[in-house]
Amino acid sequence: MAVYGIDLGTTYSCVARIDDVGRPAVLRNLEGADTTPSVVYFESADSVVVGQSAKDATVLDPDHVVQLVKRDMGEPVPREFHGRAYSPEEISARILRKLVDDAKAATGEEARDVVISVPAYFGLAERDATRKAGEIAGLRVLDVVAEPIAAALDYGALEDAAEHGDRAILVYDLGGGTFDTTVLTLRGRELTVLCTDGAKELGGSDFDDRVVAHLADRFRERFPDADDPLSDPQSETQLRKDAEEAKKALSFRERYTVRVMHQGRVEAVELTRGLVEELTRDLLDRTVDITRRTVELAAERGVSAFDEVLLVGGATKMPAVAATLRAQFGFEPRLHNPDLAVARGAALYALDRAERDRAEEGAGAEETGLTHRPYEISTVASRGYGIKVTDIDTGREYVTHLVHANDVLPASVTDDFHTIRDDQRKVRIEVMEQAGAVESDEPAHNTAVAEGTLKIPPGKPKRWPFQCVFTLDTSGLLNVVATERETGERIEISVRIGGLSQEAVDEARVAMSRQRIG
């Protein structure tokens, strides 16, 4: 059975598989396009529309349309339509269902075994939510793969390394809603993620927001007695559509005019490439700051020059991106399949996983029909992970990180801790995930992701020791084991978190099967 790679994007998604001659190929949707807008329209309780038709519906019925749901992954933020609440996982599942249904129409076979890409900076909750979205869609999620790894695989980086020797690559990934920079090193068929950094809410849609605000300002200046066009859902939706089109056009043109229409009035607003660059300069500067942190950390780890700088993600087609990287770092970036590279690379990664799984099951190439030689891929932690502790002398609460951002995975770290009171009978183990861009021991700068309670024998003095072991695997599953040594009492916390329990996932899958998704 074929395996598929899916780029579940913030603004656009696509699906790919390996063709008959071993190359990754993107499968077009029923509308004939390579990419599908990540937009869901809840037309009725029984009918859900996904893709371009859903995006078109935002103008007439914006209250029943969901966009940018990827930014909500891992968060308990349900949205209600037609009397039913939908989690981000359920909404994303409908996008996945559209992708695989269209893939089946294109290939004639069921698309079930998939690898789904995620931003490198996604934490445990977001990665787990992505997996669960796939399960709700009825898919077997072989793995989730970081988008920069997928992009490097599609670029053919490993083949280049085999031919030209060791190489270092910087991937600058500015998509519709997220941003990552990642440094990878290549040696033969070994791909190692050296370090990564990014922001969950920084992407092309934020650039669109700046254009929307400018268009609305110009309209208000022209018609001060009119209502704000952003106060009307239909006018705002049309403005966002116009802003996206203008941004894309200005990647190739110097000028573009938008007709802002609201309450029967029209104002023609001329945009220039330079103006849009001025409106969005601080956003681009944020990507520069993150890139600089990544470059500096790579230098600390022995990589101070890059053989390639790859631009991935639709927003990197803006000329200002490449120009800024040249000016700030002296890079000569290469625009590499910005809209399709991640899905194509995810398909290669899916083939790799399938090969490994079947090899572990004892099947040879003559049984599987696969002749692919697996890659050796190692990655790093996207966030730091630890537990909340209390200083016995001062009472101050703080977070001790056992696994740090950019630690090589798999990672296993052991540390000793102590009780804070005499005759303390239990210890609450609160597992924390780094929330900000920089590791901090302040609890407010971290997110609680799981907890458990460890029993302590009676009559023990304060500072009675217990041990914690943090193990983080390459797919982002954190396992925490806390042990009281005298009695051997232990608890194990598998931190595969998310807003939905397995029971809720099963119920959501059944509910989705009753809807028509087109």
Task: Walk me through what this model shows.
The chain is α+β, with helices and mostly antiparallel strands and 518 residues long. The chain folds into two domains: 3-202 and 287-378, Nucleotidyltransferase, domain 5 (2-Layer Sandwich); 385-487, Substrate Binding Domain Of DNAk, Chain A, domain 1. Strands 1, 2, 3, 4, 10 and 11 form a six-stranded mixed sheet that branches. Strands 18-17-12-13-14-19 form a six-stranded mixed sheet. The protein has a four-stranded mixed sheet with strand order 7-5-6-28. A hairpin with a 4-residue loop joins strand 1 and strand 2. Helix 2 crosses helix 3 (124-136), helix 3 packs parallel to helix 13 and helix 4 crosses helix 11. The protein is globular, with a radius of gyration of 25 Å. The two termini are 25 Å apart. The model has no long low-confidence stretch (mean pLDDT 91).
